[in-house]
Amino acid sequence: MSVIVDVIQEEYNRLEALLKEYEDKIRSYPQGSLQLRMRGKQGYYYLSYRDKADNRVKDIYIGKEGSEKVEEYKKYIEERRKYVQRKKQVEKSLKELRKLLRVTS
Amino acid sequence: MSQVKNVKLFESILGDFHRQGILQSFILIGSWVLRVYAEHYDHNPQIPIVSTQDLDLLVENPPRIKKEVNVAELLEKYELEASFSPTGDQMKFVSPDFEVEFLFSEKGKGEGRGKLIKELGITATPLRYMNFLQNYTRIMKYKDIPVRVPEPPAFVLMKYLLIKKRKTVQMLKIQKDISTARDLELFLLEQGYEEDIKLCYHRMPKKWRQSLLSILMENNSELYNLLADN
After folding, report:
1. How many other β-carbons are positioned within 10 Å of the β-carbon of residue B42?
2. Which chain B residues contact residue A93 at CB under 8 A?
3. What is the total count of domains within chain B?
4. Backbone phi, then psi, for A28, in 5-degree steps?
5. Which residue of A has its CA nearest to B222?
6. Domain end marker among B150, B167, B197
């Protein structure tokens, strides 16, 4: 095998492992987005997500605006979003490498 | 030749230099350092390991060579032959699939002339900015061989900084550098290297910091927010 094909293959393997790692991380964070609902002057946060079992959107109460739990969830959602972005980037790179491997093999 | 063979060659050269007692005289820079990082961090897939065919070894300025060793003879057994620039003051050891180059950190603008390292019988190619890297090194073990490498935060900042120094015709290399720097940066941020990155950044000359920030912004680097606020 030529050096270039080896290098591409090695990078492909690394990205596949990275993709799996990102998928695991994404799964470890709560799915969905935070929704703020106002009741009078007080805001309440809900986690809104689509339940895959019945394909319906569900809301889980998280806590009052500014509470520790809400802040924690905001951080989780942000982290998850970051990993989703990174996963997309890795998928794009894998697609390109797959094409290259097809051409070179 | 296959990349597997190149990796073996890389390991053999490190092993030979180590046995001869000269490996610590060099700092491994360039893409092969990523393999050392990968092994040090338990082969975390976030660390890119795409290596080029050039093995770059940096000689410190001033050089700290403790032993006389004929490097050309050592490399000859791997069919790496000395090749000189037309002016004769720069050299590389080349084979069809692999190259070894010795670099020297040039202070200021310099004259671009190679630096003869008599003890090793080599001429090192001068390169600017490398002085910064030589101030941030550590030893990492690679296949049980202690190798001097740049601290990862310094390496990633330098990778970004050198993007602008590449000529635009080297577009492929620029893209590879950006991609390597981005992958490594994400890894370092996840490992909690924020403070080390900031420290390296603040020890850079003001002009470098300005240039670096603009490169980070252009490339949507997550380091931009970390460093611009400080």
Report:
1. 7
2. 179
3. 2
4. -75, -15
5. A82
6. B150
Two tokens at B40? 């040090």
How confident is the model at residue B223, as a pLDDT?
94
Residues contacting residue A69 through CB under 8 Å, at least 6 positions apart: A62, A63
Q: Which domain holds residue B74?
A: 1-150
- Regarding whether B156 and B137 lie in a shared domain, the answer is no
Beta-strand relationship, B145-150 and B137-142: antiparallel
Instruction: Choose the weakest-confidence range: A21-25, B21-25, B50-54.
Output: B50-54
Residue pointed to by tokens 């001869």 = B20
Residue in this structure with the two tokens 């975390």, named with its chain if needed: B44
Q: Which of residues 19-38 of A touch B (CB under 8 A)?
A: 21
The pLDDT tens digits of the residues spanning B203-227 come to 999 999 999 999 999 998 999 999 9
Same-domain pairing of B44 and B139: yes
Tell whether B97 and B167 lie within a shared domain: no
Question: What's the pLDDT at B131?
Answer: 86
| Residue B79 CA, distance from chain mean position | 23
* Chain B contact set for A14 (CB, 8 A): 45, 48-49
Is residue B128 domain-shared with residue B168, that is, in the same domain?
no
A105 touching B (Cβ < 8 Å): no
d(CA B106, nearest CA chain A) in Å: 32
Interface-testing mutation among B31, B183, B184, with chain A (most A C-beta atoms within 10 A):
B183
Are B36 and B139 part of one and the same domain? Answer: yes
B13 and B115 in a single domain? The answer is yes
